[in-house]
Amino acid sequence: MAASREHFGRLGVILALAGSAIGLGNIWRFPYMVGEYGGAAFIIVYLAFSFLISLPAFVAESIIGRRARKSTYDALETLAPGTPWKWLGLVAVAGAFIITSFYSVVGGWSLDFLARSVVRGFDPVHPEEAAGIFGLMTASGIEPLLAHALFLGFNCMIIVLGVKKGIGRFSKICMPLLFVLIVAMMFFSLSLPGAQAGLDYLLTPDFSRLTPRGIACALGQSFFSMSIGMGVVLTYSSYMKKSQNILGTSVLTLVFDVMFAIIAGFVVMPAVFSAGLAPEAGPSLVFEGIPYIFAQMSASSPLLGRTVAVAFFLTILIAAVTSEISMIEVSVSMLMERLGWTRRRATTAIFLAALLLGCWCSLRSGVFAFCDYVSSNWFMMLGALAFTVFVGWKMDRADVRDEFTNGGKLKLASALFSAFHFIIKYLLPPAILVIFLTNLL
Ligand code: PFF
Fold first, then answer.
1. Burial profile 122-157: b = 16 or more Cβ within 10 angstroms, e = fewer
2. What are the pLDDT digits (tens) for 309-340?
3. Distance from residue 301's CA to the centre of ligand 1 (Å)
4. Which of 12, 99, 203, 409 is most open to solvent, judged by the fewest CB atoms within 10 Å of its CB?
5. Domain residue spans in the chain?
6. What is the reported pTM?
7. What is the pLDDT of residues 269-323, one digit of tens each?
8. Percent helix, strand and coil across the chain, each rounded to 5?
9. Residue of 227, 228, 372 with the most ligand 1 atoms within 8 Å of its CB, for mutation
10. Atom in ligand 1 nearest the alpha carbon of residue 323
């Protein structure tokens, strides 16, 4: 079977992994967390966690996938036959499925907002008077449900096309476009009157607002942003060629992801300050604050307001698609492997199931919040812990070294291997556990 396994091209895998990492987490979650937890103080902790904890965890998950060349459940069964490890794989797949569903609802909002920007622009409702994103969306009746179905359907069509022709090709076209769009938005945002206050806010650390919860959120956000612990990195890496450098690919993905999050901060915060909005508005920042800014802009210059709104929501939409497809692929590949289903059949099943759970999330804000909470704080942490313990304690050290160094061919990776293995074995599990417990308190 291994010979017929689909695989990515060299560039395809990097762009697909970066596509999974860069998503709503960077544009929607990261700026509001920076706003809530002390600006640059949060960014410093976030960067430290990303390089010290997320990077090794990402590499570990990647090693499992490429070693086994199987999807999440079967990968653990292949490397540790007859043990309960595969059930932890299943937990990761369940987590990925839950995120697939509610993430598609937010993807639907981006689609809806993009359509609104094209068709009629936004009404200037100040976020303080708005009903909250849920109020806003519920008031729109069937629209958000339709948008969710359309968004999910589009993603499933890419998945049906397969690994190289679907995921790989879409990522190759969209990732460069995404960077061009976000950089253009940044220059625009920085040119707004009063943008300097937003910059100061991002660049001045306020450690008094960085609570223990904020520190735990920084790791949670870093895992979420790097798509760690959900089997995404594992599944994509199972399509990676043996000649590809795992460490190099992981570092590149991290650098792209962190850069994108910080640039997104430079897009959102200057605009928020320029419009006199509160930076700590939370999740509604992007979907209420930003449309208000566009509406204000349109009052003086309709064409400019519309154009910027289209560019902004197109950026969010593309970022959401490249992440959503990675999550769908986790469940689809497992169904294909476990049940022998065709790609089309497995994708249809996931489409229907995610459509239902997503509609429930869309109609009930409590269900949405619960899905977001359990997937990011429970499933993701558990998945990350399971994969790191598996690589550190269960897998043969020689096999781990073989994947990490490509059989000793990679000089730098060979020099770094002992340090990597030590971190995975002794430092990461307790660090993840502490953060996991802090999240529960
Ligand atoms: N990394 C994506 C983002 O930042 O939006 C979200 C994500 C994708 C989370 C895939 C988890 C996952 F398995």
1. beeeebeebeebbebbeeeeeebbebbbbbbebbbe
2. 899 999 999 999 999 999 999 999 999 999 99
3. 36
4. 409
5. 10-440
6. 0.93
7. 898 888 888 777 666 778 777 878 877 777 778 888 888 889 999 999 999 999 9
8. 85, 0, 15
9. 227
10. 8
